[in-house]
Amino acid sequence: MHSPFEATDKPSWVTFGDEGLEQCDVFKEGNMSEEVAMQIVEQNIQECLGYSFHEKEPTYLWVVRRGSRKISGSGWTAKIFKVRLARADEADLYKDNFSDTPTALGSPDRAHGWARPGRGEGLGDALQDLNMVECVSPNDLRQGGLGDCWLVSAFAALAEFPGHVLDMIKPRTLAMDGRYVVSLFDYGKEKVVPVEVDDRLPKGAYGEPAFIKFTKDDEIWPCIVEKAVAKMAGSYEHIDGGDPLFALGMLSGCQDLIEFRELEKNRHWVCLKAEYRSCVPHSNDNRMVSGTWHNGDDGGSGKNWRAVLNLLAEYDAKDYLMCCGSHSGSDTTRNSWGVVQGHAYTILTVIKDIAGSGNDLIQLRNPWGSGEWKGDWSDHSNLWQAHPDVREAAKHQPNKDGIFWIEARDFFKNFSSIMVSRKSMGKNRAKKAANEPVSPPVKSSTTVTPPVSGSIGGAAVVPSGATGGAENRDEMSNVTTEILEQIEALHRTITETNHKWALVREALQHLRQETSPSAGTLTESRKGLPGISSGTDLWGGVANALTGGGAVHLE
After folding, report:
1. Cys-Cys link to 262, which of 126, 394, 416, 496 (CB 3.0-4.6 A)?
2. Which listed residue (54, 164, 327, 343) is catalytic?
């Protein structure tokens, strides 16, 4: 958050020190003056966000498209073009046919009326960085006081493809008249339609939106799209609770929507197909029917979780949008592994046999931006240090951002539904960054090292021989840091060991209760443990739990 600014309808430039702009979607780069870069941006304002450069190469500039993220990096400077809004009482502003209807908010106590952000009405007025679409990032989304995690998780999935967010909203900058058009799929009309809304948003108690929040970069696009979805549904109350699959179809325009759902009775998975006929999520006109498996089998014929995993990896390679749901329950409760119950998550990446390790990992995001998995391969699991090749392949960086990795077997124990929009969205942001790195020109007197967070074209330019902040700390600070890290590592080890012992005790108890004397197999498994099939070496699995480092899974 930045210092307050004086509202005006004149555009201006805002400078961000020690931050650069992601370079995987460059509009133009090369040796140029800042005046030329500014002119390029201002002439292409709906497409271009701003430009950045490094102090060691101040004449080499990158002009980037909207949707590119700001990333911390010493010596970098980012400059972004802003539109300043006139006060609400000083402008002739557009009013939609939704905000003034009595049913728009649902219960009147859901919000403290309506306010236009950045227009002197107490909503975002002190945000210098307020913008419509700037640095589209799924990490920036924050759910508010409405039960629409199903919608926010779909936003997060779509934000992996910034170009689609940009194509969905007009204009891409703050609208001087407060009028926005959002393109959404209308299930009743069976086509994409323009939904017109104004910038009046439900206001919370502390100068924030009552429902979905501004992004961490102070963008309002999630609030505007949420309002457009609520308008199509007839009320914000009608989008309090829903299905991520419904949102994926509405946002992407895809009609090939399927869900994999676990049957609790035998822990097999079935394939369902969506038949939506109404824009109201809970309408009786919307239903799920039996679909068809990839090999032509009827969707009602159960498949094991490995068959579903293979499809998820295939869908990830095809750049489909995917979300998942945890076991039923209240989203105010979490299981012992940190998974929020009755909650929707976004599936970001699926990697089978990562780095040849034999581990199948899935990356998820909690739309709350917090509340992560605490088991094997969680952010601070010792497995990352034990398997540096996996850490490198996963580009693992622990952060308190709601993003985490989970082993496939643990995923299928903790999540019971998977929603897929089978439409290719093109390469997502992470894949673009990995496959199309853009590095700055480097003189012989400089070296290339990664920036502090993320990657700006894969590198930042720093002078040879320069030392990082950690090396400048005094010796006592280093010793203290090492001790604290050792204590934290020991705590994590104890926690993981306790989890493994709990799993072993549960397996032994389960075996004692359900093992048939003649068969030696379990006919049904307790929720959270996969069925033990004939011929499985259960005791070998118990031995692995007692002696083996790394992931423990009893099958």
Report:
1. 416
2. 343
Say what percent of the chain tops pLDDT 90.
47
475 token code pair: 């010796």
CA dist list (Å): 498 to 69, 374, 381, 502: 40, 12, 13, 6
Which pLDDT tens digit goes with each residue over 63-102?
999 888 788 888 999 999 877 788 888 889 999 999 999 9
149-158 helix and 244-252 helix, angle to the nearest 10 degrees: 40
Instruction: Examine the residue annotation and report whether 435 is marked as an active-site residue of this protein.
Output: no
- Output Rg (C-alpha) for the chain, integer angstroms: 25
Pick from 379-388, 470-479, 503-512, 530-539 the range whose average pLDDT is largest: 379-388
Amino acid at 84: R
Quick check: bond before 171 cis, omega within 30?
Answer: yes
Query: Of 47-56, 233-242, 383-392, 482-491, where does mean pLDDT reach its minimum?
Result: 482-491
Beta bridge partners of 269: 262, 303
Same domain, 315 and 257: yes
| Residues pairing with 447 in the sheet | 462
Catalytic residue status for 54: no
Q: Which of 149, 254, 271, 323 is catalytic?
A: 149
Contact 123, 149 (CB under 8 A): no
CA dist., res. 236 & res. 247, Å (int)? 14
User: Quick one: pLDDT band at residue 521, thresholds 50, 70, 90?
Assistant: very low
Residues 138 and 154: beta-carbon distance below 8 Å: no
The neighbour count for residue 533, using CB atoms within 10 Å, is 10
Tokens of 538: 């259960």
Instruction: Name which of 48, 83, 84 is nearest 63 in CA terms.
Output: 48
The active-site residue, picked from 131, 139, 359, 366, is 366
Instruction: Name the domain boundary from 402, 421, 440.
Output: 421
Q: Could you confirm whether 295 is annotated as catalytic?
A: no
Please indicate whether residue 201 or residue 432 has the higher confidence score (pLDDT).
201
Assess whether 228 and 242 both reside in one domain. Answer: yes
Angle at CA of residue 171, ends 166 and 175, nearest 5°? 140
List the domain range (segments joined by +) for residue 61: 12-82
C-alpha torsion sign, points 80, 83, 87, 93: negative
Cα–Cα distance measured from residue 15 to residue 80, given in angstroms and rounded to the nearest whole number = 7
Q: Is residue 431 part of a domain?
A: no
